[in-house]
Every structure is written in C-alpha cells, then in structure tokens.
Amino acid sequence: MRGGTVLDSGASPPSAPGGTRTAAHGIWERTGDQTFRERFHSFSFDAEGQHVSTAEVTFERSLIQGNHAEPDEIIGTGTGKLFTPTGDVIGEACVKDRGRRDAFEE
Length: 106
Fold this sequence. Notes:
Layout: E1 5-8, E2 20-21, E3 24-30, E4 35-45, E5 51-64, E6 73-83, E7 89-100
Antiparallel strand pairs: 1-3, 2-4, 3-4, 4-5, 5-6, 6-7
C-alpha cells in the first residue's frame, strides 16, 4: 500500500488444531530502481483464543516489467520466523513467492 505499509489477508495453516491466524501487517521500502523489501507479522491463536505464536516474514522482492502481452511480475525470497508469545524462536524457514499484477483483459 502507499506510504510503506503492508496488509496480507492470505490464509496459512493455523499453528494449533482449531486455531486461527490473523491478517498480517507490516512495512515495506524501496531498495533500488525495481527492488524493495518488506517485513510483516501475523498472530496465531488456539481454539480457546489464546495467543500461541507470532510469525515474522522478511522478503527481498524484485519487479519484472512486463509488456503488453505479459503483465508485471514480482518475485521474492526471504526468511520466516515463528516465535512463542514470550519471543523465543521456535522455527525458521526460507520462503519464496512469485506473483503477477491483476489486470483486465483488453
């Protein structure tokens, strides 16, 4: 979003059976002509509503300019960390993603 904020409503698996994950929120900044980085957090709760973990994801992303036939693409690599409610790291992973800008067909 404009102004350097991130909002993600994607659904990842909950960390506990019957649990839920919040939308993620965070920040982003431009790091080059066609590159930027972002960091966002989401929170998971168990079936009783107790906070069970916090996820933090940091991405380095690149914009690949499309042409009239192909839309722009964004590719990214990064790291994901999972924390207990007290801040202890309980998991880490490398993450990759790829996306295209949505556009109406002409």
